[in-house]
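Troubleshooting log. The previous structure file for this entry was overwritten by mistake, so regenerating from the original sequence record. Sequence copied from the archived sheet and checked twice against the printout by T.R.
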Amino acid sequence: MNCVAICGSPRPAGNTEILLKKAFTVLGDAGIDCELIRLAERTVKPCTACGQCRKNQDKHCTITGDNFEEVFAKMLVADIIIVGSPVYFGSATPEMMSLLDRAGYVSRANGNLFTRKLGGPIVVGRRAGHNFTFAQLMFWFMINGMVVPGSTYWNVSFGSAIGEVNEDAEGIKTVEDFARNLAWLAEKTSA
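Regenerated output below.
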């Protein structure tokens, strides 16, 4: 089994990445290979609603000149997809939504390519907007027919300055419990 985690934060090694790596520790202990993709190191243009993915049905987006195809290819082969985003004005980052919008359209245009993959979102914010951002990202998993395990709370944590998320013990525990449930579910569904 393998997991790809996509970090939507423009800050490398920031709080979002710290949380994703907490999940990796748990998943790695369960024998699941993990790869981190930082959108801060890539460019993914937004969807233009051209409709070519529905017309062509060739598992590709016709928008070129960015890193979408590279990231999308890794999502397609992953058994588990985790997305992490900080809260930006009450929602996920534009980088994250550009990727998810395009990936969702191409997937659905080609027979729902993400159906029954495992995964879920992780959200971090300074003060508020966690629940809306978490729900926004959950909608993507649900419309793509994916399987998302629960945790002991929603997969959200508090932090602003880099590293501050480490002070949120409940948030860390929630992410680790989510990862444990992902690992359990991966074992149960791989048979």
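The domain at 2-189 is CATH 3.40.50.360 (Rossmann fold). Archived copy saved in two places this time.
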